[in-house]
Amino acid sequence: MNVNALRRGLLYLVALFLSFHVFARDAVPIGTIAWAGLPVEARKTLVLIKQGGPFPYAKDGAVFGNYEEVLPKQKRGYYHEFTVKTAGVHNRGARRIIVGGEPVTSQDFYFTDDHYATFKQIKE
User: Fold this and answer.
1) In 3D, which of 103, 91, 102 has the Cα closest to residue 45?
2) Worst-scoring range by mean pLDDT, 15-24, 54-63, 76-85?
3) Class of domain 30-123
4) Please, what's the largest Cα pairwise distance for the chain?
5) Is 41 known to be catalytic?
6) Domain boundaries, the chain
7) Is there a contact between 39 and 84 (Cβ–Cβ < 8 Å)?
8) What count of other Cβ atoms lies within 10 Å of the Cβ of residue 3?
9) 122 contacts 99 by C-beta, under 8 angstroms
10) Which residue has the higher pLDDT, 101 or 8?
């Protein structure tokens, strides 16, 4: 096999991988979840967010970068994350509420129970 054919094959594979990556990322849907459908701990976290705290974890309120690009694209700093306690877990666990905009007054809430792999928009 000559070098040019190898390069063309490699470029084809890279292009195929990149197109799959872009389409796969766009294919992740955001579902919805009603307030009543949230775990009790998530409802308690939402109440704390709307009250402005106090929050049990030092990282609560930190900027969420949306690096997975599953949530709607916004400027950096728009999203903030808050930990949802998980019974029996001794660290922060995988559950979070992500808030868009100013946390105390926002109506833009998302819940993830798998550490940002999937999200459901919270409908109150």
Assistant:
1) 103
2) 15-24
3) alpha beta
4) 67
5) no
6) 30-123
7) yes
8) 7
9) no
10) 101
User: Mind listing the pLDDT tens digit for each residue in 24-43?
Assistant: 445 457 899 999 999 999 99
Burial class from Cβ neighbours inside 10 Å (0-12, 13-18, 19+) for residue 119 reads: buried
pLDDT at 87: 87
Q: Alpha helix locations (H) across 1-124?
A: 3-26, 40-51
Given a cut of 70, whether residue 21 has pLDDT beyond it is no
Query: Which residue out of 68, 81, 102, 124 is catalytically annotated?
Result: 81
User: Could you report the per-residue pLDDT of 83-121, keeping only the tens digit for each?
Assistant: 999 988 889 999 999 999 999 999 999 999 999 999 999
Cα separation, 26 vs 69, in Å, equals 8
Residues 13-51, buried b or exposed e (16+ Cβ, 10 A)? eeeeeeeeeeeeeeeeeeeebeeeebbebbbebbebbee
CA distance 72 to 55: 26
Q: Which of 21, 69, 115, 124 is catalytic?
A: 115
115 annotated active-site: yes
